[in-house]
Amino acid sequence: MPTTLITGANRGLGLEFARQYAHDGWQVLAGCRLPDQASDLRALARETGRIEILELDVGCTDQIAAVARQLAGRPIDLLINNAGVPGSPARLGELDDDEWLETLRVNTLGPIRLAEALRDNVAASGHKRIVAISSGLASIAQNTSGGRYSYRTSKAALNAAVRSLAMDLRGRGVIAVVLSPGWVRTRMGGAGAPLDPGQSVAGLRRVIAALTLEDTGAFFSHDGTRVPW
């Protein structure tokens, strides 16, 4: 039975990843900041019997270290760094340094710190995959609208960091990529988005399943196309 660890699993894409993988027979380690308040995730855990809920705030290095100790020696076939924050929509003249740094801390440093802490678990598995949920807004080439400074830069920095992670872990057979889920109807994406979480996650899972070591370090969309940097 393969195992996946999913961050931000209490809602949105994270919850949908947990639902789909658990229903397909995977063991799911579902990380979230406030397990006691994650009612939908707890209900899904009771329904499937395949979900273990972990208290995990990816912005907290102490919690990352605690989870790494808890999972020491346990293979993790697929690490899905999904948790993130939307950042501020502040425009020029309104930018706030503290907010920007907090967005970078959660969206960039958190996923890489977690991958660093669990790299031996992933390398010891059969599937050996690390994916980070990025965004089309991270594409510098596709930025024709401006704005979203903290979010765009945090995800672009995540892309660059995962590329380095991919190069560093390639010798151990680990595949690391960044994925854009598309514009999805979640709390972050809003009600007007064209994709529902089920559609996005199904596409992302197809991409993940088809990955080879030759793909490591790449940036893919949920439909399998490559996203320009």
What does this structure look like?
- This protein has one domain: 3-Layer(aba) Sandwich (Rossmann fold), CATH 3.40.50.
- It contains six helices and seven strands.
- The chain has helices spanning 12-23, 39-48, 61-70, 97-123, 149-169, 197-210, and strands at residues 3-6, 27-32, 51-55, 78-81, 129-133, 175-180, 219-221.
- A seven-stranded parallel sheet has the order 3-2-1-4-5-6-7, with helices on both faces.
- α1 packs across α6 (197-210), α3 runs parallel beside α4 (97-123) and α4 (97-123) packs parallel to α5 (149-169).
- It is globular and about 50 Å long.
- The N and C termini lie far apart (35 Å).
Number of domains: 1
Kindly report the spatial arrangement of strands forming the biggest sheet.
3-2-1-4-5-6-7
What's the story with the biggest beta sheet? 7 strands, parallel
State the secondary-structure class: alpha/beta
The CATH class, by name, is Alpha Beta
* Amino-to-carboxy terminus distance: 35 Å
Question: How much strand?
Answer: 5-15%
Q: Which CATH-level-2 architecture?
A: 3-Layer(aba) Sandwich
Shape: globular
Order of helices and strands: EHEHEHEHEHEHE
How many strands? 7
Rounded average pLDDT:
95
